[in-house]
Design goal:
Strand order of the largest sheet: 3-2-1-4-5-6
Number of domains: 2
Helix content: 25-40%
Largest sheet: 6 strands, parallel
Distance between the termini: 34 Å
Number of strands: 11
CATH superfamily of the largest domain: Crotonobetainyl-coa:carnitine coa-transferase, domain 1
Oligomer: single chain
Order of helices and strands: EHEHEHEHHEHHEHHEEHHHHEHHEEHH
Shape: elongated
CATH architecture of the largest domain: 3-Layer(aba) Sandwich
Length: about 400
């Protein structure tokens, strides 16, 4: 939440050096920064981070994207050429005071730049290094490139997304695996930091982009291991419960309904005005409903289709049936509950006004996270503060580094 005093930050005193680009590992650093960590974002000299140019740009920002200002929030920007020996020396000096380094280059890249784990851990033995790559630091595919779409495909999620007679689709957006990896990476960093606090030993958090995707496939892996059954695409329904789907209302709004047990289904029949079906053998139990999926879905779908979404949702809510409007981004802005929870916030953007972005998640009762500011407006915005203040470089030294393309 915006406006909470820094003294209450849970990760106050933790220093993070974000060497990464694009999304997964930078998200990890962003999450840590929201709860008080001091995050230094390393960008390419002159051109800055690639995320500045991904997606729609904020006018008249000079080309920086909405995405950048959201996901680089709370970070301080420095520029450094990691390929240059002078730049590598600067990073090693910064690592000496860092607790966490995040990176998502292909395995072996940082090693070629003298910034791999062996080099950095010698500088700071208690360092935690979060390494997120497409396929992880080990294994036969370790050097292959990949983005979120590839991770969804490799991790098994894309195969399950969509309808059986059509091509697999991206689950939500192609970047969902990047955000999942960012969350798992932040969790790994916190676990490793706890160990470092107790023992003084640092370690690598090695995360492949596809692994969090594989981890959230509910029981698909266990079922195949136990039975050999391969889960297939079934559209917007789910394999384990019916009715558990999206239904179109009379005013062309989609409604999500999720009945996961027999008690909920009885309440749904009451809402539908069909208590007479309670004893119908096709609907009396979850296995029976799964066997007669089409009959059940058509029953619910026909009832929803006869009503406007607001009326249908009111009846379902009165019956305590889990349900909701399938929200567009416009619906999110209009949702009173989303507003009350602070899920969407407005943040000042210097010289450009305000930018709206998602709020901090999760909510902590004693040490809540906060958004101190949107992403830095220009690459190297904090060069003087970091290189001059932290490393003690003189103006002349920084001028020389700029002229040589190091920063």
């Amino acid at each position: 939440m915006i406006g909470v005093a820094d003294s209450r930050a849970a990760l106050d005193g933790v220093s993070v050096l974000d060497l990464a680009t694009y999304l997964a590992a930078p998200i990890c650093a962003t999450l840590l920064g929201e709860f008080g960590a001091d995050v230094i974002k390393v960008e390419q000299p002159r051109v800055g981070d690639d995320l500045r140019r991904l997606g729609r740009t904020v006018a008249p920002s000079g080309g920086d994207s909405y995405w950048w200002f959201v996901e680089a929030r709370n970070k301080k920007s420095i520029t450094c050429n990691l390929r240059d020996p002078e730049g590598q020396a600067l990073i090693q000096r910064l690592v000496a005071a860092a607790h966490v380094v995040t990176e998502n280059f292909r395995p072996g890249t940082l090693e070629r730049w003298n910034l791999g784990w062996d080099e950095l851990s010698r500088v700071r033995p208690s360092l935690v290094m979060v390494r997120i790559s497409a396929f992880g630091q080990t294994g036969p595919n370790r050097e292959r490139p990949g983005f979120g779409r590839i991770a969804a495909a490799v991790g098994g999620l894309a195969y399950l997304s969509g309808y059986p007679d059509r091509a697999p689709v991206s689950p939500g957006t192609p970047t969902v695996p990047d955000y999942l990896a960012g969350v798992f990476g932040a969790f790994g960093a916190l676990v490793a930091l706890r160990h470092a606090e107790r023992t003084g030993e640092g370690q690598v958090v090695d995360l492949a982009l596809y692994e969090p995707v594989l981890r959230v496939l509910d029981d698909a892996i266990a079922v195949y291991g136990g039975t050999g059954d391969v889960r297939e695409r079934i559209g917007s329904g789910t394999e384990s419960a019916v009715p558990h789907n999206h239904y179109l209302s009379r005013d062309r709004r989609w409604i999500a309904i999720a009945c996961t047990n027999d008690r909920m289904f009885v309440r749904l029949l009451q809402a539908l005005g069909r208590p007479d079906l309670t004893g119908d053998p096709r609907m009396a139990t979850t296995p029976a409903r799964l066997e007669h999926r089409t009959v059940v879905d058509e029953l619910v779908g026909a009832w929803v289709a006869e009503r406007d979404a607001a009326r249908a949702l009111a009846a379902l809510e009165a019956a305590e049936v889990p349900s909701a409007l399938v929200a567009s981004v416009r619906d999110l802005f209009e949702d009173a509950h989303v507003r009350a929870r602070g899920n969407i916030v407005s943040v000042a953007l210097p010289l450009l006004g305000q930018i709206v972005m998602p709020g901090v998640v999760p909510r902590l009762s004693l040490t809540p996270g906060q958004i101190k500011g949107a992403g830095p407006s220009r690459p190297g915005e904090h060069n003087e503060e970091i290189y001059g203040g932290k490393l003690g470089l003189s103006n002349a030294e920084m001028t020389g580094l700029r002229e040589r393309g190091v920063i």
